[in-house]
């Protein structure tokens, strides 16, 4: 009985509401802008927005790769010391 009570209280405190917005299921504010952009692109059929998004995605991926390479090199240097 006590265990069920404590479990119930714990789940109510830690429980986060579930939001489902549109077909992407995005619920954060920064993603809402992306959702709006994708929705606009779907309806207008323009490809420019998609190309910009892919360019930004590629630049972010290359930046992440560069940072990872630097950290790996730094770790290797520290091991050699």
Summed up:
By secondary structure, the protein is an all-alpha fold.
β-sheet strand percentage: under 5%
Helical proportion? Answer: over 70%
Distance between the termini: 59 Å
Q: Average the pLDDT over all residues and give the rounded result.
A: 76
Number of structurally distinct domains: 1
Count every beta strand, where a strand is a DSSP E run of 2 or more residues. Answer: 0
Largest sheet: none
Spans of at least 5 consecutive residues whose pLDDT stays below 50 are: none
List the helices and strands and how they pair.
Blueprint: H1 2-14, H2 29-44, H3 48-80
Please describe what this structure looks like.
This protein is mostly helical and 81 residues long. The chain has one domain (1-80). The chain is 77% helix and 0% strand. It is built from three helices and no strands. The longest helix is centred in the last third of the chain and has 33 residues, at 48-80.
């Amino acid at each position: 009985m006590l265990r069920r009570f404590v479990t119930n209280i714990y789940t109510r405190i830690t429980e986060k509401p579930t939001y489902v917005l549109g077909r992407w299921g995005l619920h954060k504010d920064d993603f809402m802008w992306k959702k709006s952009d994708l929705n606009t692109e779907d309806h207008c059929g323009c490809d420019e927005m998609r190309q910009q998004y892919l360019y930004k995605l590629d630049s972010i991926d290359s930046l992440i790769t560069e940072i990872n390479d630097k950290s790996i090199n730094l770790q290797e240097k520290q091991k050699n010391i």
